Amino acid sequence: MGRSTLAAIVLAAGRSKRFVSSRSKLLHPLSGKALIRWPLETLGALDTSPTIVVVRPDDAELRAACGAGVDFAVQRVAKGTGHAVLAARAKLASHRGPVLVMAGDLPLLRIQTLRRLVDAHRRLDDGLALLTAEVDDPHGWGRIVRKGKLVDSIVEHRDATAEQRDIREVNVGVYCIDARVLFELLRRVRPDNVQGEIYLTDIVGLALRRGCQVRPVSVDAAEVGQVNSRRELVRLEALLRTQTNERWMAAGVTIVDPDTTYIGPDVRIGSDTFIGPNVHLRGATRIGKHCQIDGSSFITDSVIGDRVHLRFGVVMTEAKVGRDCLIGPFAHLRPATRLGAGVHIGDFVETKNATLADGAKANHLAYIGDAEIGRETNVGAGTITCNYDGFRKHRTIVGDRVQIGSDTQLVAPVRLGNDVYVASGSTVRRDVPAGRLVYNPRDQVERDGWVAERRARERKK
Asked: Which of 28, 157, 309, 364 is catalytic?
């Protein structure tokens, strides 16, 4: 027979009082991603089924943040962590096998650690495996008292002797246990405490009294650091940033100022890429090899080809940039921008839902929205696509090798054929066939002596 299916219960019904927030702390971002997403993605990689998130009845926002592939149980009244686990009992009524139980605020917990925990449980007969860590200051933690390689007892701080308080190995609250045994033990827990709550930690003592083996699995304390306040969230962000940047530098990426470089967990970067100070790389961003990002750029969910140079101050969201492009400074590439190879986008140019083919250029002060720009076309300074008529968006289509003069308005829907030349200051309202010059005739008017007359009038005033 194969191994039984592994389930998971994630506790996410806390009130987050120390966060002083109207939202669950698990919605607050860590490295650009909601806290709850971190453990859920780890469990997804572990292929737990089902994965049950215990939530408050009124937390639709948290449910939405969890994404697909999870189920929910509702803790209607806050009566402790053990009571929260009991809320998931009906969801696991037909489950036969082990279940992982963990808090939702363990973003750095690794899949390798959870695998070690599960393997330790599988080597036991109806036993309990739990994660432990050695901490510098164990005040307030439940101490692990060992008997050989197993747990003999867990002593809460308030009940510990002076000798036991010197123990630095503590229970961090992540368990693997057979689902049937888990709920059997929880039914025996009594709320004999000041808060009148059912504590999950009480199952350890009950398991020992039942004759079950309790096996500790050690983990580095940094990996199981919980987030109970905004200060702890900031500290965790700094730790994660350091670990991430060091990993990328070891992989061949130059990071000039790691203290101001923020790289999300799902970002991928090619070797020999240079990243300047104050750069944010978020979401599923992919950056090729031999790229250069000068600094102060914010890039989200974008794909960047090899040998791309992003000058200072580029903002990019859901864009795709081909190889050998030159972008910026101070360019804004909005969603659905697609750049071919060797495209130049210069200072104060904004693109949106626009495709620029190989070799196209828009070097200064332009807006290109809902447009298709052909190969080797040059968009002059001050050019805009007038894509919105007050009701609907319309497209502008420009062919190859078109020259668009400065201060041009292209009023969509409009199409310019290949090799069109648009004179400076033109407003193009109708389609232009290939190879034509298009312009709006305007006479230049001059008045002799006007400046002197104006100055004379101003002096009298």
From this structure: 364
